[in-house]
Amino acid sequence: MWIPTEHEKYGVVLASFRGTVQHGLPLEIGDTVQILERCEGWYRGFILKNPNFKGIFPTSYIHLKNAHVKNKGQFETVIPVEDSVITEMTSTLRDWGAMWKQLYVKNEGDLFHRLWHVMNEILDLRRQVLVGHLTHDRMRDVKQHITARLDWGNEQLGLDLVPRREFSMVDPDEISVTELYRLMEHRHRKKETPAAASTHHLFVHVKSLMSANLGEELEVFFHIYDGRENRPLSERFFVKLNKSGLPKSPEKTERQCTLFVDLGSSDLRKDVYIVVHIIRIGRMGAGEKKNLCSVQYRRPFGCAVVSIADLLTADSKDDHLLKVYACNTESEWHQIHENLIKKANSRYNLSGSNTGLAVALQLLHGDIEQLRREYMVLFTRGVSITRKLGFSDVIMPGEMRNDLYITLERGEFEKGGKSVARNVEITVYVLDIDGLILKTHVAAGSGEPGGDEYHSLVLYHNNSPRWAEQIKLPIPVDMFRGSHVRFEFRHCSTKDKGEKKLFGYSFVPLMQEDGRTLPDGTHELIIHKCEENTNLADCPRYLKLPFSKVNLPSNNQTLKGTKESFWITSFLCSTKLTQNGDMLDLLKWRAHPERINDSLSKLKEIDGSEIVKFLQDTLDTLFGILDESSQRYGLKVFDSLVHIINLLQDSKFQHFKPVMDTYIESHFAGALSYRDLIKVLKWYVDRIVDAEHQDHIQQVLKASEYIFKYIIQSRRLFSLATGGQNEEEFRVCIHELFMSIRFFLSQENKSTSPVAQTQAVFLRTFPAVYGELLKIFTVREVAGFVRETLGSLPTAVHADCLEAVKLQCIAKTVESQLYTNPESRCILLPVVLRVLQAHMQEQRDLVMCARILTSMLSLIKKEEENGTAEPVVSEEVELIVESLLGVLLRTILEISNRPQPAGPTMRLQFQDVTGEFVACLLALLRQMSDRHYQQLLQAFSSKDNLRDFLLQIFTVFRILIRPEMFSKDWTVMRLVTNNVIITTVLYLSEALRKNFLNDKFDYKVWDSYFYLSVIFINQPCLQLESFSPSKRKRILEKYGDMRVMMGCEIFSMWQNLGEHKLNFIPAMIGPFLEVTLVPQPDLRNVMIPIFHDMMDWEQRRSGNFKQVEAKLIDKLDSLMSEGKGDETYRELFNSIIPLFGPYPSLLKKIERETWRESGISLIATVTRLMERLLDYRDCMKLGEVDGKKIGCTVSLLNFYKTELNKEEMYIRYIHKLYDLHFKAQNYTEASYTLLLYDELLEWSERPLREFLNYPMQSEWQRKEYLHLTIVQNFDRGKCWENGIILCRELADQYESYYDYRNLSKMRMMEASLYDKIMDQQRLEPEFFRVGFYGKKFPFFLRNKEFVCRGHDYERLEAFQQRMLNEFPHAIAMQHVNQPDQTIYQADAQYLQIYAVTPIPESQDVLQRDGVPDNIKSFYKFNHIWRFRYDRPFHKGTKDKENEFKSLWVERTTLTLVQSLPGISRWFEVDKRELVEVSPLENAIEVIENKNLQLRTLITQCQSRQMQNINPLTMCLNGVIDAAVNGGLARYQEAFFVKDYVMNHPEDGEKIGRLRELMFEQAHILEYGLTVHEKFVPQDMRPLHKKLVDQFHLMKSSLGIQEFPAYVRASPVHFTNGSPRTCRNSVPNIISPDGGRGVARRSLPSYPAVNRYSSSSLSSQASNEVSNITGQSESSDEVFNMQPSPSTSSLSSNHSASPNVTSSAPSSARGSPQMAEKHKHSRENACLSPRDRPVSAIFPNPMDPAQRAAPHQIGDATLPRSDPNLSAPDKAGSSAKNMRSQSPVSASRSPQKTTVPPFTPSPTECQSTSLVSNSPVLSGSYSSGISSLSRCSVSEASGTELPAGDHPAHPLPPPSTLPNSVSSSSDEPIRRENKTPPPYSVYERNNPRSRPVPLPHSLSIPPQADPPALPPKPHQLRTGSMKLDGTSDPRVPRPRPLPRKVSQL
What we know:
- The chain is of the alpha+beta class.
- Helices cover 43% and strands 13% of the residues.
- Strands 1, 2, 3, 4, 5 and 6 form a six-stranded antiparallel β-sheet that branches. Strands 34-35-40-39-38-37 form a six-stranded antiparallel beta barrel.
- Mean pLDDT is 74; it is low at 902-910, 1123-1145 and 1605-1943.
C-alpha cells in the first residue's frame, strides 16, 4: 500500500535507473527527486526538473537529504536544508550544462572552454565546502570565490543577476524592495567598476647578472628613488650574487625576492625610479693579479635605473633586462643614478655589450592582506619585505616599527703624510649602554639578515670620498637609551700586504639626555684621530668627548679648526620614540608647570604622526591639566582637544579613531571634565552670531561628536562615583546648550555668510551626537531634542548649500540608531516628511531625497518582519502615503521625461535616482493594505483629482514596465515590480468601475487602463515560455502566471463597459490582438470572447468589418517590425493560425452570427497575410541570406498591393525591398523596385506629407528625387538603356519649366549613358531554374518553381552551392524530371536546379545588321519572359551503330509571371510548355549552327579581327576531322537511306534541307581553307596540309566532285573579300546575332554569332592537338557519330552521358522546334557535377581574359559559357514539326533582305563556344556530332505555332515571308490567363507584343504594328510613362489603388 512520506521528501539519485518496470520513472545519476509516497522498497515521486512526469523507483537508488517542506499537501514544494550557496551552485551548474553544450553547437569555442574550466573549478570548490573541513576564514574565502565565479558565468551566458547578501541568495519577498534595489545596484556597480586600489606594491625577483667580465662576487642593492625630489623613497633591498652572477642562496627565495610595500598612488609616476647599485667584492683594481692581495674590498661596479611608469604599461610578468652602466670616475659614484636619470649616459660605458641584470618586476595592487590571499604562493615560498622610508599614507594603530636609517654621506680627510690620497673604508658598529656591540643590528638592507658590523665602499685614492650608502639599524626601543653608533676609518693599502690601518673614528649617541632621539637630518661628526692599536673598547672614555661640530663649546678651538669631518644623514621611523622636544615637554608637564601654557600653544605645530604615536598619553595629559587647573587652562585644553579630534578626521590618521574610542571607553578618567567641556562649548556657541571669524568655531563644531562623547562619558563616570548626584543640574546644562544651538540655527543668513557656513558645519556633525545622548537620556527626550533642533531651522532658507546639508542631516537621522526606535520615529517622522515633501515638490536634491526615502521604507519592512506592533507600522505607512505618494509619482514622471543630462557621471546619477524612486514607490505600494487603499481613494475631494491620480499612476506603471527601466539581467527586480503593479491594479480597477462608468464614463482613464494591461501582458520578462524549465518553475511557484491574472482582469473590466465598448473599436483591436497572440492557452481562452464581442459591436454599428480588418492588418504588420531578433515572436505568430483557423471558439461563434460570411472572409484574409508575415519574420532574422529576405519581401509586397489594397504598407515594403537590394548591390533590381513608388506619383504640385525618410515636399519634387535615384541605380547596375528613358522624361519636365540649368545636366547625363553603352563591357548573366519542393519551405517558395538571374561570373555549380548554403537542410535532387506528389507533400526540403537559356522578346534589334554587340547584349538578357531547357532522349529502339537515328530532344519552355530582371532576381514560373524535336530536325539544327560558326570565324579572320588564327584552325579541324571519321556520314546513314525516306514521306523537304546544308558546309569549308592558307603561320603549315587532304577525303565521302550551281552561287563569295562594315565602322561581324535571319544568306549577313565562351573552341583545339576525347562508355552516348576519338566536325567538345548532358547542349538550341533555349547540358548539372568540363583539362585559347577585349571574336566579349545556349533561338517555335518551315537554299537570294523576317536569338549559334565552361557537364568528349552544333539557323523563324499545327509544306523562301511573321503567334495563348504583376507598367500596357524592350515601368503605349527598330529618343519623350487603358481586355487587372498616395 502506498503511504505518503513524512520525512523522506528529497533525495539524489545514486545510480541510473532505466524505469523498465510498469509506471517506472527513468532516473539518471545526479538527478534530484521529490518523493511523494512509499511502498515496500519503492518510492513514488518525480524528478525536480520535470515535475509533470511522476513514476516509481527503488529506494536503494536514492540518497536521502534533509529538506524543508513548504505548503504541505498537493502543491508542496521542497527546499533542501543545506548551505544556500551549495543549493545555488547545484541549480546553476545544471542550467549551465545545457547552455554549455549549445555553445559548442554555435561554435563559440572560446567561451565554451572558459566556461568548462570555471564549471570544473566550481565543482572542486563545492567538494571542499561539502566535506566541511575548512576553517571559518577559508570557508568564507571559498564561498566568495564560488559566488564570483557563478556571477561571471551568469553574466557571460546572459543569465539573471542574483541579489546576494553575505554570499547567499536573497529572497525578494523577505526584504524591502528598496533593499533589494540597493543589493542589485551594488552588485551591478561592482560588476561595472572595480574600485581602484590606493596601495601598491612592487615585486622584484633577481634572476642573474649577465656580464663577460665577472669573476668576483657581487652585491646588488635596489631602492625606489624619487627623481623629482632627488631622495630615496624606500630602504634598500640587498642581494648577494656569486662569481657567475647568480644568487648565492638559490634555495632561499626570500634572499632573491622582495616586495617594496606601501607605495601610494602618487608614487606611480614617471619620475619615480627603481635604482640598482652593484658593488663588487674583490681586489682594489679590477685588473690586478690574483696573488697580490688576499684582502677583499667593496668596490663600485655599475648602476641601472628603470622608471616605475614603464611597469604600468609593460606586461605584468615580463622579465626585464636592465642595462648596467659602469662608473668611470669614482668621485661621481654617489650621483651616478641621478646622471642616468637625467639621461647623461654618455659619460658612462655599458659594462659590456651584453651586460644586463635580469629581473622580474611586477606591480601588485591592494592592501597587503589582500595580496596574502591572492598570491599565497608568493608569501609561502618566501619574500622579504622592503619598507618605505617613513610611514605609509595611512598609519594603522598597533603598527610597531623602530628603524633608524643612517646614510654615510661623505668625508674630508687629510693626506696623513702620504704622497697620494687615501683609500678610506668605514666600519660601522652599534654599541649599547654598556659599550657592548649589538649583534645583528646593522643591516645593509632587507633580503639579507643583519650583521654585527658594516663595511663601506672603498673609493680609490680619494681624500673627499662620497659614499651615499644607506644602512638600517633596527634597534629595539628599550635599547635606544644609552646606545651609540661608532664609525671607524681605515686606510686600505694597495701594497703587498694589503692591510687596513685604523687612523680615526667618529661616534654619535642615539638619544639625548632629555629623552629625544637623534634628530633627523645631516650631522657633521668630528673625526677623532687614533692609532692602529688604540683600544676603542673603553667606550666611557671617548663618549665624554664631543661628537658633533654643532655641539662644540665655543672655547674648544682645536677641534673646531680641524679640517677633517665626516657627514651622516639620519632618519628615524618609530612608532614609540620622538625627536620632538615640545611633545616631550607637554608629556612631562608636571616637571615644568610653568611651561604648560607654552606646550599647549605649541601642540598645534607638532606633526600629526608624533601626536598619534602618543595619543593616549597626550589625552591623559590634557585631562590631567584640566582637572588640576580648569579655570586657568580650560579654554586652551579644550582647543587642544579639538585640534587632536580634528586631526583624526584626516585620512592619514582616520584609523586612529577606534584608538580614541577605546580610550574614552576604557582609559578616560575625567569624571569632572563634563562641566568644563559643556561650559566652553556653550561659550563658543553663544559667540557664533557675533563673531567675525568663524573658522575656529567651525573647528570646534566639527569636533562636537567626540566632545559629546567626552561629556557623556565624564557624566557617566561622575554618576557612578557619586551615585547620580547633580543629575538635574546636568540636564539643565544640556538643555541650555541646546537652546543656544537652536538660537544660532534659527538665524536667517545669506548662503555666503560665515554664520550660514557654521550652521552647515553643525548640521553635518549633529546626527553623530544622537547615539551619545541616548546613553543618558530617554529615546523620547533625544527625539525631542532632534525635532526641536531641526525644527528651529528657518523655513524660507536662501542658502541652497544649507538646504542640502539639512537634507544630509535628515538622511543621517533616518539612518541613525535613534530612528529605528518606534517611539522616536513617531516624533521624528512628521519633520522628515515635511522636509522631504518640500524638496521633492521643487525637484531639488533628489538623490538625497531618494536615499532618505529608501532608508525609511527599508526600516518599515524590517520592523514588520521583527513583529513590531501592526498598528505602528500601519500608521507610519499611512503617513507616508498621505504625504509622499502623489509627489513621488510626479517626481518619477518628471525625471523619466526629463532629457538625459550629458556626461557619463551625470547620467549615472540620473539613472540612480530614477531607480531609487521607483524602488521606493514599489516598496510603499507593497506595504499598503486594503485599508490604506480605501483611505487613499476616499481622500480625493473630487472626481477630477481621482482621475488625475489614476492617470498618473497608470503612466508611472507603464514607465516601470519599460525594458530600459532596469538592466537586462535584473529579472528578479522586474518580477517584484510586476507583482506590485498587478496587486495595485486590482485595487484601483474597483475605483475605475465605481467612479468612471455609465454617465460618468471617462474614455481617457479607461484607455490608459487597457493600454497598461496590454503592455503588462506583453512584457518579455513575463513570457515564461522563453525561460528554462527551472526558471519557469521558480517564477510560477512564487508569483503564478501574472499574464493570466491580468487577462482575467481585462475581461472582467471589458464586460462592465456595456455600450461604451464602441469607444474602443477599432482602437483596442490591435492591442487586444497582441494579447491574444501570447502563447498561453488560458490567456487566449479569456481574450477570444472579447475579440468576438468587438466584431459583434462593430457589425452592429456599421454593418461591416472594414475598420476591424484595417486595424488588424496594420497591427499584424507592426508586430512584425517590432521585436526583431526575439525568438518568442515566432511562437506568437504561429498562434494566429489556430486562433483564426481551426481554433474552435472564435470560428464557432462567428458561424452562429448573421454576419457569418464576412467574418469567415476576414479570417481567410488574415490567415493568408499571416503566412506571409511568418515567412517574412523568419527571413528577416539576423544571419539569414539576402535571397530569402528579398523573395519574402516581394511576396508580402504583392499581397499588400493585389489583395489588401493597403497602399501605405505597400510603399513601406517597396522601400524595405529597395534597402535589401541596395545592401546586396542588386542595383538594377533596386531601381525597378523604387520605380514602383515612382509610378504611383504624378508630375503635380500637390503637397505630400513627411513619410519614411522623405521630407514634406511637393509630389513633383519627390518624383524628381526618385527619378534621379533610379537613374543613378540603373547606371550602377549597367542598365543604361532604362536610365536613358527616365533622363528623357526628366528633361521634358525641366524643359517645360524652362529650367535649362538642370535640363543641360540631364542631357549630359543622358549622353554619358549612351557613351557607357558603347564603351563599357557588360557581363552576360546566367539564368537558373530552381524548384522548391516539400512542406518545410516557407510559404512563398513551397512547391513552386522559379527562374533566377545569377550573379556576375556565377556558373551553375556556384549557384547550386549558394542555394544549398541558403537552405542548409535542403536535399539536391539528382534528376530533372518533374517530381511526384510524395515529394510535394514530404516534410523535407528538396531543391531541383538546372540552367536555362533566355529567349529574348525583341528580335527586331537583334536581327538588324550593323547594330553593335554592346547594344544587342542589353536586348538579349533584359525583359526576358521565357526560358528554354533541352533534354535529349531516345525514342524507340536505339541503334547502337548509329545513335542519331533515334535521338530526340525534349524542349521545355518556361514562362514567368514577370520578366527578368525586375524587382527581384527571381520570379515564379507561370506556365510550362513541352515539345519534342525529331532526330532529323535535330541534325538540321546542328549543321546550321556549325555552318554559321564557320562563316563567322572566316569573316572575322578576313577582317583581321582575330589576334591569331587558332580558333579558325580548331574549328576547321574539328569539322573536317570529324567528318572524315564519320561525322556527316552518320547523318547520311541515318536519314538518306531508302528505308528512312520511305517510312517518313513527310520529311522529304527536311531531308533535302539537310543535304543542302551538308553541301553548303563543304563549300564553306573549302572557302575557309582558302582563307586559312592565306593567314596560317609557317609552323602550322603541316597541319593545314593535313586539313586540305582530309577535306578531299570528306568531299569524296559525301560524293561531292563539284558543287552544284546553287551552292557555287552561295554566300561564300565575299564581296570585296571581306564583309561590309556598318555605319559606325564597327564590323557587323561583332554583332553576335545581327543578321542571322536567313540560313543561307551571303556571309556578310551572318555576323559572328559565335560565342567562344571558354569551351568549344578550346576543346576542339585540344582535340586537334592531342586527340584526347575520352569517349563515354555508355551505350547511350548520344552524340557520337562514330567511335573515332577525333572530334566530330559538328561537335562541340562536350559530350556526356545522355542523362547528364541534356543533349547536344547548345546545338539543340537553334531548331525552330525547340521552342526555347534550354541549357540542357546543365540539366543534371546541379544534380551531379561529376566530371569537369573540358576547359578545365585543356588550355582554352579564348579564356575569359581574352574574351574581355571588345575586338575579339564575335560575341566573345560576353563571358557567358552556357552549354545550353542554342545559337539561333530566335523567338523559338513551339511545334516540333516547325523544322519544315526551314527556308529554301540561300543561293537563290544571296544578298537579299537586309532586315530578315526571322528574329534571331540573342545567343545564336553559341554552339561551340558555350559548353566547356559549364560546371555541370559531366562526361567525356564526344567524338560524334557535337551537342553544341545543333543550333539550327532555320530557327530564325520567330513564328511559334501551337504544338498541334503541322504545316504540310515547307515555308516559302525568306524573301517572301512578311515581316509580321516575327511576332509570336502563340503569345496570346501564353498570356491570356495570366494576371500581370502589379508593377511593370510596360507589361501591363502590352502583355502580348513587346516591340521594344523598355524597362518594365518605362514603356510607351504599344502601336498597332510594332516598329522593326527601337523608337528614336524624341519619339519616346511624348510617350506616357504611366499606366493607360490599353492593356488586353482579357487580362484581369489588379484592384486599383485609391490615389491617396499623394499623402505619402
